[in-house]
Amino acid sequence: MPRNWAELDGPARRFLAASAVSFLGDGLRYAALPLLAARQGAGPAEFGVLLGAATLPFLVLGIFGGVLADRVRRRGLLLVCDGLRLAVLTVFVGCLVTGHAGLPLLYAVAFLMGLLESLATSAAFAYLPTLVPGHQLERANATLSTALLLGRQLLGPLAGAGLLELGESLPFVVDAASFLLSGALLATVAAGLEDKPERRKGGGPAAVFADVRVSTRWMRVTPHVLVIACSAGVINLFNSGALAVQPYFAEHVLSGSAYAYGLMMASSALGGVAGAQAAGALATRLSSGRMVVVALAALGAGFGTVALLAHPLAVYAGLALTGVGFAVWGVATTSWRQRLTPHDLMGRADALHRMISWGVNPIGSLLGGLVAAHWGAHGPFLLVAVAPLLLIPLFWNRRADPAPREPETGERSLAADTTRS
């Protein structure tokens, strides 16, 4: 992070610092909420409901959050999201302290935090390019990716589990404080750095759905963005299957149960941190397309190592390599999409991308379980090893478009739809 961080301007650093703080709070909650549910007797079905409540907003409501992110100032929207998340957690902590936090309340908290997180994610994707010049996008996204991996996947979950042992409300108190600090840091970024959003007539359902249609039409006629989204969907389809059977793999292949499972998660996260740091340097030497090829090759080699070699050290090394691959993929494709996306479409474009690339996760999890049941725990890892390698030809000679393709405006689209009707 130091090199990437040092090359960014003050406003970008403060935005990234605010994001890092909120990512750490997210990681605390990601670990503490399921563990709290387990203490209340949650079984597999209840855990499924809890996970579904947290992820449903990204799949069902995410695109509408993108519409909002394109209609208002993104800095202000991020501040509102931090304030609302602080309020939700404050109420939740009060319920915990008074003994009124049953499973239904945990589901509600997971859903509300997922909803606000999906909205904040679209706003952050759209806001970052206003704070850095185009040639620094990879550096900025590499720093953001590092903060996310450390906060949400490594340090945050470890701290959340530890704090829960000291007191059920403690991780959620710290999580709430993270949003207070995040908002304070974000408030120091000058509001004038962001262009005023384009005014659109109408705020009813017809206007909102017109904005959604504009984003889908734009993606269809912007091949690079569509290929990136569909490729991410293919990778996530098989990766979610591997993630679903990872605890089973740890117990039956590595014979280490929870200990080995923790090392598998840590190996992937640490590889991701290294990959995010490397991505900033790679961007100065390789095109976006070639960076994606490097990422796909790393994913194929890493998952192939896990699938074909049963020795624990080989498995951990393979997962670390997959972490590198995912980080380089994320930095390269995110920066590429940001360059190709018109400013007033940033929120919707990111939300639509996430719907396509994440919407397959429930199917992939079921597929992974079925494959492991019939062909063993190695099967899902072998599938996710092959998939990225088959995608390499799509990116080998793909070059970045010279400029973003301007979409049809929401007002024009709405007017056309009205005329046709």
Automatic annotation (TrEMBL):
The chain crosses the membrane at residues 47-69, 170-193, 225-246, 258-279, 291-310, 316-334, 355-373, 379-396. Its main location: membrane. InterPro entries: MFS, MFS_dom, MFS_trans_sf. It is found in: Cell membrane. GO terms for cellular component: plasma membrane. The keyword Cell membrane applies. This is MFS transporter.
